[in-house]
Sequence to fold (915 residues):
Amino acid sequence: MSRSKDPHVARDTAPQHQKFVYDFTEGNKDLKGLLGGKGANLAEMTNLGLPVPPGFTITSEACKVYLDTGTEPAALSDEVGVHLDALERKMGKKLGQSDDPLLVSVRSGAKFSMPGMMDTVLNIGLSDTSVAGLAKQSGDERFAWDSYRRLIQMFGKTVLGVDGDLFEEALEEAKRAKKAASDIDLDAADLKKLVKQFKKIVSREAGRDFPQDPREQMDLAIRSVFESWNTDRAKLYRRQERIPGDLGTAVNICSMVFGNLGPDSGTGVAFTRDPASGHQGVYGDYLQNAQGEDVVAGIRNTVPLADLETIDKKSYDRLTQIMEILETHYRDLCDIEFTIERGELWMLQTRVGKRTAGAAFRIATQLVDQGLIDEAEALQRVNGAQLAQLMFPRFDDGGKGAELLGRGIAASPGAAVGKAVFDSYTAVKWSRSGERVILIRRETNPDDLDGMIAAEGILTSRGGKTSHAAVVARGMGKTCVCGAEELEVDTKRRRMTAGKTVIEEGDIVSVDGSTGKVYLGEVPVVPSPVVEYFEGRMHAGADDADELVEAVHRMMAYADRRRRLRVRANADNAEDALRARRFGAQGIGLCRTEHMFLGERRSMVEKLILADTDDERERALRTLLPLQKKDFVELFEAMDGLPVTVRLLDPPLHEFLPDITELSVRVALAESRKDHNENDLRLLQAVHKLHEQNPMLGLRGVRLGLVIPGLFAMQVRAIAEAAAERKNAKGDPRAEIMIPLVGTVQELEIVRDEAQQVIAEVIKSTGIDLKLSLGTMIELPRAALTAGQIAEAAEFFSFGTNDLTQTVWGFSRDDVEASFFTAYLEKGIFGVSPFETIDMDGVGALVRSACEAGRRTRPDLKLGVCGEHGGDPESVHFFHEVGLDYVSCSPFRIPVARLEAGRAAAQSDGGGDSR
Fold:
């Protein structure tokens, strides 16, 4: 292969004796990292004695050298030459030989399947001289010239960068001139003319002639495949699928077999099971007299694979036999590419096939029943993301035929239809009247919670995947689309504008949280039977049970038997707690008491904030106490016998006061009318007094309990009295009191001592023995770094990974997503947002060290996590590995966390994926 002679080009960094080329007879399926999935599986099929055209694979290591240095490894050209010589001897002809040419394909093949993202060139070796030899040897002049025009077209587009439409236009013109319905109606003479046209296009557009030297063709094609690793589409696909960008691609050089030699030839794709449903049978497509790209491009209509039985029974029978061999060998659904050349079947590729979420669950259980895999491996064949897909409703036919208004970020999957409303009050009011509504806002805030609960779905024109709307919607299992910037939301005029279309309040809209699309009008929705199962409204063993539900039921049972991590819920009221329990929650890991102070109780909190004297403050606290106690009684009853972790008040007090701008305008207007409102004036003074430049790092959490006398004591008393009431009613309350935002052990000790005193008073006054544990959230770097000290005063740690991520990175989550997260993701700084999946190297390192330090101080220290990461599949595996006792997440994500906890345990016990 050609090498750069520029002395300034980086030197080849490959080890001196590294092997860069493997014959198909040398590899196996376990070398995917080195040979790519395609090369490893071609080698595996060769080892199995299946009909694979001979060839060799250039490793991904060679690609990495090329991408790092701009040139191929020094030894690569000679290694390729040695393997090419061996291939020529095996085939009895040379690459591009004039009288009987050996032709090869040059195809990409990375460790992880990236279909259509990288380059392939077929028929390498054809030239102005060898095309005649191919015609003579095949006895088919048309076939030879058709193969040559395909090479020039693919090579010109893929290797030389010529606009592919130019070739397509020339081909269409040739068909029009001949009045041909398809390219197979063009004869040899037509194709000869087309070859001349194609070569002229190459010369004009590429600034060079089409190369006639077959080795130059191959070398340029190999280099093009290397470079295709870093095309925009490949990088975008890797980001989407979370595939590392430093793997590189292998290159497969395979002797050509031809499906375009006539009606006794063809090409096709087969699946050993239906990838859409998982059902067993013969699935796939076949196309007579064609090459592989014809099937993929959809240029001509294929026939169902089952039709091959009547077209060529011998090949069909052999293919079905091979399909069974491959599925049994790989112990999974296999995706197969094949070609039939004049009645002889050749296998060009196999891989573990991609499938829908439903198919994944069905196939895993089928393979267990067939004895091909055990339960531990079955758990590796499905994942939490697939389960989440199965839990959300969806639009029938994906919104086909509906008017598309715009598209935003698919923040929370599902399908929702309802009347457009533009504030929470209207959402609640209309919902209570039996109307289905979609809450549309520029962005949401905690005040919108009632409206969000009432709505079928949420649509915002601002925000990202971890905005308030997105996080809350996912937690509630609500469909949500965020950041639909092309939609102009006018909450004052109660309307939304999409181009020239105006959506007034009350108009029907449909929101697809799986795609981010927003439609005008009602799109039919299909409910999820999987959620019905988790809700207890459908039973896996029932006569009317969906087979998918049965598969999900079995996989969840496998996971629950395997997992070590317990799964709790983030729930703030009895209704959520009961739902969480139905979904399999083993307690509550986070009850956010601030949510109990919203709505009608906001005025009581305002009185507490405005209190000027100790008596006023005491009266306000006494008013709140019975309400808090009632909340806790209901929560403890719903979770009877299971732990309930209650976080004392955390957010800054200004969040309970009116917006400063709105209040200032209200006061100013009142003054202009000489209609003074004393309460509004006091509120405005309080808002100014409590205003902070960065409230996330201001007066909140444990600091509130230290600065506002009696606040935390009131909450602890409410918890203790509620627990006593439940015990008196023969219940089994298991309350855990959590102090938020602790940064130093001294803060915790002061609040702990006060809490213990209050608990002792309740025990004395009720005569009921209470065992309430006291712990803290670890959500500040200093708390993590001094965890050993803090554990002296804490009986449990719960990692608040949302705030810990913000403080470790120095990010304000509400700001950074809108400003620069997209750029960070595009530049590869993030593979995924650290608010979605825990940053294992940074935040994760603090979690790990805090666990170790805490348990050195207190070996029986209970450890959990209650941030959004508690329901994230990848994060759950990390939490299992560092030794947490439980994860806590929103009720809707509990099944996902249960499944992933089981998968993590099976993996750590050696139950890996053997495919």
